[in-house]
Structure formats: structure tokens, C-alpha cells
Amino acid sequence: MGFRATVLTLYPEMFPGHLSYSLAGKAMERGQWSLDSIQIRDFATDKHRTVDDTPAGGGAGMVLKPDVLARAIDSTCENDARPRLLMSPRGKPLTQERVRELAAGQGVIIVCGRFEGVDQRVIDARELEEISIGDYVLSGGEPAALVVLDTIVRILPGVMGNDLSGLHESFEGGLLEHPHYTRPQEWEGREIPAILTSGNHGAIEKWRHEQAVTLTKERRPDLLKD
User: Could you tell me which residues come within 8 angstroms of residue 19 by beta carbon, excluding any fewer than 6 positions away?
Assistant: First the structure.
């Protein structure tokens, strides 16, 4: 059985989105992974299918109701050990290490928040792991969920044509990736670095590592500290 993803959302039509194309789309066609989207609103019980209410204590915006969301989660989770993620700007930053852990499992359940947030009680009661894809705020969790799934699917076994492609990318070794070049040899007066056409693979690997370290120092020194 392939990797199985379930997304809980108020906008199921947003899925699979870009994941139906390219490597991810072909992998889905081959059965290497699957995606189900569940409409949270289907679990509301009133005639207006209400999923949100005003925040306790006052304040702007609306909050996703715990009872409705819990029913949606429970519909997917009977005897289901897949991690339950909540896309949230206050969550732990997504890392390549966490992506590898998720990709090694059977699948994932992702809850897409909306409005001002999700009632804390359902986060606690259903043990949702809050994850952030960056220090900014989106209109909803759907774009973030697509990002998370993209990071996971591309490293599933057999999805990339050459599994070695993922070994030298940014963050895989704690560094940003080295610069890339391809033909033509000269373009607008700029030459491919001579070392890359030398045929000396040991020297090439050394150069690439040095370039990766330099770029990381310049752009993401926090990675070197970590």
C-alpha cells in the first residue's frame, strides 16, 4: 500500500492542486501515494452547516468549532496511527528532518485551519501536531498543506527518477545547495567554472562543498549554528 494522505478542509476542491502534475501526479497514477480530501462542513449538525463561532473572551474574527472539527477528525482516525498535523503559523517550523520522518510512515492526516484559528481543546484532545511553513500568515492552511505534501511525496521511494537527486539538495546535509551550471559552456560572457569540466570528481565534490558552506554562511548562518 502506498503513502496515504487525508486532508480535512473547508475547500476540498483545492486538492490535489499542483500535486496532480509532474512527478507527484505520475506517482499518484502509479499508486505510490493517494490523497483524500474531507469537507469539514459535512460534520456540522445545524441547518446552516456552521463550522465557526465568535472567540471566547471577545476579539476579532471567528474560531473553528471543536465539536465539528473533532467529528471530522474522528471519521478518519479509527484504528489509524498516521500523524495528525494542523497547519498553523504558531507551529514548529517544518524541517527536512521532519519531512523524512513523515515520508517513512504510512501516511499523514492534515487539518487545514481557517479564520482566526482552531479551538485549543480539539488540538489537545485529538493530539494535533502544529506545523508552520514559515514566519508569515496565510488565508488558510490549504496552501501550507500542499507544501507539506509536496515535500513528502517527492522523496517517497521511486518517485524521483534518480533517488540520488535528493541527497545533495538544500537542507539535506545541513547546508544550502551549491550552484548549478549546464550547457552552453559560455553564456553572455559568463563561463562554467573550469573545475566542473575538469573530470576530477574528487575536486568537483570538494568545490561543491566549499560553495555550499560559503552560501550557507552568507544566507543562512543559523543553519551552521544548528
Answer: 25, 28, 35, 146, 149, 150, 153
Q: Quick one: pLDDT at residue 170?
A: 62
Residue 63 marked ligand-binding: no
Write out 153-214 in H/E/C secondary structure.
HCCCCCCCCCHHHHCCCCCCCCCCCCCCCCCCCEECCEECCHHHHCCCHHHHHHHHHHHHHH
Q: 113: annotated binding-site residue?
A: yes
Q: Does the annotation flag 23 for ligand binding?
A: no
- Confirm whether residue 102 is marked as ligand binding: no
Q: Which fold has domain 167-225?
A: Trp Operon Repressor; Chain A (1.10.1270)
Is 134 annotated to bind a ligand? Reply is yes
Asked if residue 146 lies in contact with residue 121, where contact means CB atoms within 8 angstroms, the answer is no
Report pLDDT digits (tens) over 68-109. Answer: 999 999 999 778 999 999 999 999 999 999 999 999 999 999
Q: Establish whether 73 is an annotated binding residue.
A: no
What pTM does this model have?
A: 0.91
pLDDT-derived band at 137 (thresholds 50, 70, 90) equals: very high
Using pLDDT thresholds of 50, 70 and 90, give the confidence band for residue 1: confident
Q: Topology of domain 3-155, per CATH?
A: Alpha/beta knot (3.40.1280)
Task: Tell me whether residue 133 is annotated as binding.
Answer: yes
So where are the chain's domains? Answer: 3-155, 167-225
